[in-house]
Amino acid sequence: SAMASEEPKAKKLKLSEEEKKEYTLKPNDQILAEDKHKALFDELVKLKVEYHAGGATQNSIKIAQWMIQEPHNVGTFFGCIGKDKFGEILKQKAEEAHIDAHYYEQDEEPTGSCAACITGDNRSLVANLAAANCYKKDKHLDLEENWKLVEKAKVFYIAGFFLTVSLESILKVAKHASENNKIFCLNLSAPFICQFFKDNLMQVMPYVDVLFGNETEAAAFAKEQDFETKDIKEIAKKAQALPKDNTKRQRIVVLTQGKDQTVLASSDKVETFPVLKIDSKDIVDTNGAGDAFVGGFLSELVQEKPLHQCVKAAHYAANVIIRRAGCTFPEKPDFN
């Protein structure tokens, strides 16, 4: 089961270097839209844009379900949408992906969107949270029929993005997981989460059984935590050793580095796993690659497979997604 509120639409375009400077976009970054970015969304719509249903956590749950195939509705998703066309599309796409989506629907804000600006092998994301920012614990998570879904779940995954929205919702789910010896997974999600939402992040960290991140997030996290190292294996080891509430489960830290090897730290060792080779001409866009990695990982984790198998599935899923636009996938996986 996954809980989060997300930016559910991606608009994709190629930006010139000048425009990127104007909007201060960095390669491989994720930011929240400010007033100066509103024009970016207006510019985008004038162009021929591709729309894809998205949202970081929702992408991961869809991929996990796709990897599992049968039974359907293994993944349950909570989020917040507007009562509008994009919201309807999201509901329809969730159904098509066979995930059990339970949205908090409100009409104060429209369904969120996210501009994905692709250049070469990099993607820069500008999220206009809108409805995604409106998720309310008391209006949704606390309702008996929704909390029952939490109680029935074995594994939870929340993107770090949600730390900007509803810390109390995350803590409620995280504490439930810890008290019932279930698996709680969190993603660092973006450098700005590690920097500007570090207090929220560190309130949740004692409950985190599996922590995901990429190399730029890991570097920002290490700097903010005064780890005094830039070595990714050391960062993984130090993050793994942070205080933990449920001592029955040792934390696992999984850090990706694009085309470079993935680092996995568990209580007794730090291992590295090479990613699947891909020719750069076969890369369509890397948007959704990290979400797909997590989805692949979760698909094996819920089946209680060993960690190396979880990483193998994660690498497979990411490799599939970067050959396609957005976080989309063929009808069936070719993974065993």
Task: Describe the overall structure.
Its main location: nucleus. Pfam families: PfkB. Its EC number is 2.7.1.20. The chain has 336 residues and is α/β, with parallel strands linked by helices. It has one domain: 3-Layer(aba) Sandwich (UDP-N-acetylmuramoyl-L-alanine:D-glutamate ligase), CATH 3.40.1190.20. 38% of the residues lie in helices and 22% in strands. It contains 13 helices and 14 strands. The chain has a 6-stranded mixed β-sheet with strand order 9-10-11-12-13-14, sandwiched between helices. A 5-stranded mixed β-sheet has the order 3-8-7-2-4. β13 and β14 form a beta hairpin. α3 packs across α12 and α12 packs antiparallel against α13. The radius of gyration is 18 Å and the shape is globular. The N terminus is likely disordered.
* Mean pLDDT level: 91
Query: Which sequence of strands runs across the widest sheet?
Result: 9-10-11-12-13-14
Examine the coordinates and then state which fold CATH places here, giving the name of the CATH topology. Answer: UDP-N-acetylmuramoyl-L-alanine:D-glutamate ligase
Discrete helix count:
13
In CATH's first tier, which class applies?
Alpha Beta
User: What fraction of residues sit in β-strands?
Assistant: 15-25%
Number of strand elements = 14
Radius of gyration, in Å, reads 18 Å
CATH superfamily: Ribokinase
**Sheet with most strands:** 6 strands, mixed
Number of domains: 1
**Which regions contain 5 or more consecutive residues with pLDDT less than 50?**
1-11
What is the correct CATH architecture?
Answer: 3-Layer(aba) Sandwich
Q: What order do the helices and strands follow?
A: EEHEHEHEHEEEHHEHEHHEHHEEEHH
C-alpha end-to-end distance = 23 Å
Shape: globular
Q: What structural class do helix, strand and pairing data support?
A: alpha/beta
Helix content: 25-40%
EC number: 2.7.1.20
GO cellular component, one term: cytosol
InterPro entries: Adenokinase, Carboh/pur_kinase_PfkB_CS, PfkB_dom, Ribokinase-like
Cofactor: Mg(2+)
